[in-house]
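Subject: mismatched residue count in predicted assembly?

I count 286 residues in my input, but I want to confirm that the predicted structure covers every chain. Input:
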Amino acid sequence: MSEFRLHPTLAADTLSVTTLALSQVLLMNDERYPWLIIVPQRPALTELYQLKSGDRQQLMRELDAASQVLHTQPLMSKINVASLGNLVPQLHVHVVGRHAADPAWPGPVWGHSAPVPYAPGEGVERARRLGEEILGRLAKRDR
Amino acid sequence: MSEFRLHPTLAADTLSVTTLALSQVLLMNDERYPWLIIVPQRPALTELYQLKSGDRQQLMRELDAASQVLHTQPLMSKINVASLGNLVPQLHVHVVGRHAADPAWPGPVWGHSAPVPYAPGEGVERARRLGEEILGRLAKRDR
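Triage response: the counts match. Full output below for your records.
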């Protein structure tokens, strides 16, 4: 079996958050939205339905933890969860916190406008805190 | 517990496809895309993470069947799966077949342009055939 390698576009557009049992968690480098990208570390998959049953269930746990953490961030009223992949074929799932005053509301964030990168250091700190919260939530579930 | 009722916007924008163990399946009345909307029949939910574990697993089975059926339709090269709900709060999941020559490619279909309704009779027939295929695929899985 070939090895999993993160797609270079995903690596270039994001900051690293954490690694979970199945997935790498990335933070889109766009300070306008709390926007996570969850990438199952399985090579050569492009569609959710291609995940094996155990991986699919683990992905759901990881998506739910990411969604709940974003939903508790200030202002956030809706979580968008989407597997698109029209541009980057490697299977990945967007989890985006949304609210009525964000730039793309009520439309989708994808293709809306160019990202506004975090200030130096801020993105890394944001990613670190989100990673801690996601790991904490998954640990609580497993107890 | 209150009763599940389909949100009137979802009802107005779609044709009925079939009802599965958990969800109603709808076909967006837009002949440009094979576009299903899967609505878990649980009242008052707005986010995927709010589904109970058994319902979440059943939704995955239903989404996978819908995705696989759309992926086998002519031309389709990518399946987009998304829970958005910025406009219609009732929990629902889009499953959309995409290809490089569709009007919105590679952008998202949501908010791209006004739908082009099916000709009379055509949408109903399309919905009927998709419903048969989804039910057939779920039955095969359960054997």
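Helices of chain B lie at 8-13, 53-71, 122-142. Marking this ticket as 'not a bug'.
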